[in-house]
Specification:
It is a single chain. By secondary structure, the protein is an alpha+beta fold. A 6-stranded mixed beta sheet has the order 2-1-6-5-4-3. A hairpin with a 5-residue loop joins strand 1 and strand 2. It is globular. The C terminus is likely disordered.
Length: 226
């Protein structure tokens, strides 16, 4: 029996990177070697290659790579560009153009007392600096199948570099959330809603209280955004 090759966006992040043209990148093709060497020993799940969890995880990895590193939404293969939109915690919707103009961290974190808004590049530099050994993401469980995929996830890394003037403590930082993704018949993303507490995550980097917005020493944390 002849096996049909899956479409590019379902072949995984490395395949999409290999198929991209040099001019597609904001700077250069991203390097995910830490995801191959470090992440397997730190993840809490081990999905079968053809499981729904593995497929969802791969699609989201491709999506994250494209919005972070490809400057033109027309080259994004993981979504239906003219229809795609995303939002966090029921807030304002952002389309693909907003992601490229405002920056992914600014959109996906939103307003937070622990995160001052920055440019696209500087925001990525901020978090890459805080997590120099990688900031990983995994699907924990898929709760509903396509076309409306609901899934739980975990994001984690070691706080080994400074964040906004706060020195690292070498501890593992984790955050958990739930996302709901609407996909088309080809499993391309149409919209994604994320539900998580960004202050609980960022407060771990600043020693702050995610409820009051106060730092560990009691001083009010600076106004922020991303």
């Amino acid at each position: 029996m002849t096996q049909t090759t899956p479409p590019l966006w379902l072949q995984g992040r490395e395949a999409v990177i290999a198929a991209a043209a040099p001019e597609d990148w904001r700077h250069e093709a991203p390097d995910y070697h830490l995801s191959h060497t470090v992440m397997p020993g730190e993840r809490s799940t081990d999905h079968a290659p053809d499981s729904l969890e593995a497929v969802v995880e791969s699609i989201v990895q491709v999506f994250e790579m494209e919005v972070s590193h490809k400057h033109d939404p027309q080259t994004w293969v993981s979504m239906v560009g003219e229809h795609f939109r995303t939002r966090v915690n029921g807030g304002e919707w952002a389309d693909s153009a907003a992601l490229t103009e405002k920056g992914t961290y600014n959109v996906l974190i939103g307003d937070s007392v622990f995160y001052p808004k920055q440019s696209f590049d500087s925001s990525h530099d901020t978090f890459h600096g805080a997590f120099p050994n990688g900031f990983y993401w995994e699907v924990l469980e898929v709760l509903s199948p396509p076309p409306l995929v609901t899934f739980k996830w975990r994001h984690w890394g070691t706080f080994a570099g400074a964040y906004e003037g706060h020195e690292p403590n070498g501890k593992r930082i984790e955050m958990f959330g739930v996302s709901v993704a609407k996909v088309d018949d080809d499993l391309k993303l149409l919209e994604v809603e994320h539900f998580y507490d960004p202050n609980a995550f960022l407060g771990q980097l600043t020693g702050g209280c995610p409820v009051t917005g106060h730092g560990a020493g009691g001083a009010s944390a600076p106004a922020s955004d991303s």
